[in-house]
Amino acid sequence: MSLRPTLETRLAQPTMEGAGVHLHRAFGFHDPSELDPFLLFDDFRNDIPQHFERGFPWHPHRGIETITYVLNGTVDHGDSLGNTGTLGAGDVQWMTAGSGILHQEMPKGNINGQMHGFQLWANLPGSLKMTAPRYQDVQGKEIPEIIDDDGTRVKVIVGSFWGKTGPVDGIAADPQYLDIFVPAGVKKTFKIDTYRRAFAYVFEGAGAFADASAPTGVLLEKEVMGEEVNIRDMSGNRTLIRFGTGDEVTVQAGPEGIRFLLISGAPIQEPVAWHGPIVMNTQAELQQAMRELRNGTFIKPAH
What we know:
Keywords: Iron, Metal-binding. Pfam families: Pirin, Pirin_C. The protein is mainly β. It is built from one helix and 26 strands. Strands 1, 13, 14, 17, 18, 19, 22, 23 and 24 form a nine-stranded antiparallel beta sheet that branches. Strand 25 and strand 26 (278-280) form a beta hairpin. It starts with 5 loop residues before the first strand and ends in an 8-residue tail after the last helix.
């Protein structure tokens, strides 16, 4: 077994999208080979309704898949195919934009006005970029959760892990998408296929992700469950950790435990031509998509 080294640790950056939604972007509109097949990851978390209630009005997508995972509040969605629905707390939606779709996403806070969710964009290979659009809406109760003897909890949203398989399937990037909580002071190792690109995103608590190289940073002594433990390089709220190659990731949870997403996927390794919500292989394909948007032929008839 080989431990995946930590290539980079960085904080998600505040930005604004849609009609004025305040969010934090962990990555996106960067070097697309860095986390291939993943293109963008947003954390939309807010307890000020004016900062998210205008939502994401009608906009196009082509050539990608998006996964939306809601933790608090709801997201009402609709599209140019006539689909409508509402994602509640714990629910997931995977949308294959394929040849093109127009849709809107309108978040609403919970009873306390809080909204929290994530959106991940995954690229489609050239052979599937013009496939028919489709949705998979999954209720939180359908997502398997595994609780280990030490209190570690893993929700399997996509892919297979610890003998359970997530309800979302048929995704081109063949991803694994896990929501993991490790209790205070627990050290835990998670296996990841060697050939996948992988990252973690911490959104509650803090912890130290072990590195195959010599440890760096300040060594901290903390009391956890009545015992002194040494924790180095604490990664906390809204932190992205990008991993190198290997087949496992190890984390030491801090004094409040740690909750993070662990996401991996098989790289596509194709050219990327990218403008906003449209991702193709060549500039010519991108220009054609923009022309179709202007002349009203962007949405393709169902076969």
